[in-house]
Amino acid sequence: MNGMLADEPEIVERILDHIDRKSTDLSDGVWHEPVEHYTSQARFSAEIRQVFRKTATPFCPSAALPDTGCYVARDAALTPVVAVRGGDGKVRAFRNACRHRGVQLVDGSGCKKALTCRYHAWTYGLDGQLRGIPDEHGFPGIDKAAYGLVPIQAEERSGMVFVTQDGAEIRDGATESLPDLFGPDWRLLTTVEQEFAANWKIVAEGFLEGYHIRSTHHDTFFPLQYDNINVVEAFGRNSRISFPYRRIEKLRKVPPAERRTWGMLTHVYHLFPNVMIATFPTNMIMTVLEPLAVDRTRLVTYTLSNLAGHEEGRAAIAQGRNFVALGAAEDRDVACAAQRGLAAGANDVFTFGLFEGAIRHFHRNLQTLIGETAS
Ligand code: FES
Ligand SMILES: [Fe+2]
To answer: Using a 6 Å cutoff on CB, does residue 101 contact ligand 1?
Structure first.
């Protein structure tokens, strides 16, 4: 399933064809996922260790680190991490802990000339080197070069910073084929963090199919969007799901080779395992689903736009954002209800049908990396 992504005319063609036939993309088979995988502490630990720590995962948009000294600190795979842009323009990432007595160095985001620990003021350069120890004679013979911040792999691609925590990154070639999602004119508008009571996979699944548009989003997305008409593509472990708007009908009058998708559909890029990027007419939303515990997830939502430079752009962005927020709240409500339903013990497996192929792809990849045998 390592296909390349279809171009815009092809996506439009497939969607118009589905509208005519009242059909949608179908996967090759039904998937049964053990419910235990949403509740088991052992499975959760295996996901962190064998998937999150070993995969190159998007950490933040490059636009969150616009200048020298800008940093973003947050937990990734239960580990405090800080990414910072150096004087040479390069982004580096470190374990976010002082090398003296381990105090977490920075919180949230901001810009600094150097990273200074709040406890005894050991100071690190933006390249992670330990630069200064107050009253250094208290540490006779200390080799400062051995006390730099502990680096983790970081790399900028497609307008995002990717980090890999444990050793060699598992590459499947797919991330390299990502389109440039955030070009140099994209600016970060807001960063919002929310925590809620659901397993991270339940939250992820809500982004990956269009079979719930009519019933879950009846008064929000459904008036503007089709229910259960989607193009579903896999590239490596990632997926892209296209959700057409009703106004895509207008493109029937446009010669096929000139058809463009912007403003006609939402793409959701699922960057395995835990990042979703959704495209909207006035902005893009990058959501990181950060697992905190088997039944708790933090959502970090970055909203970016390339229209923020002028007034009409800003008004349109605000309007679009409020609208999307209503739909997103509906998704969170059902995710929390699905989490509460786990306690009912009604299901041994969850059954994902032919419309839910991107979820099947997701679970199959988790299963492979964790080394479970096929169900
Ligand atoms: S713990 Fe950071 S300087 Fe002491
Ligand atoms: Fe939804």
So the answer is: yes
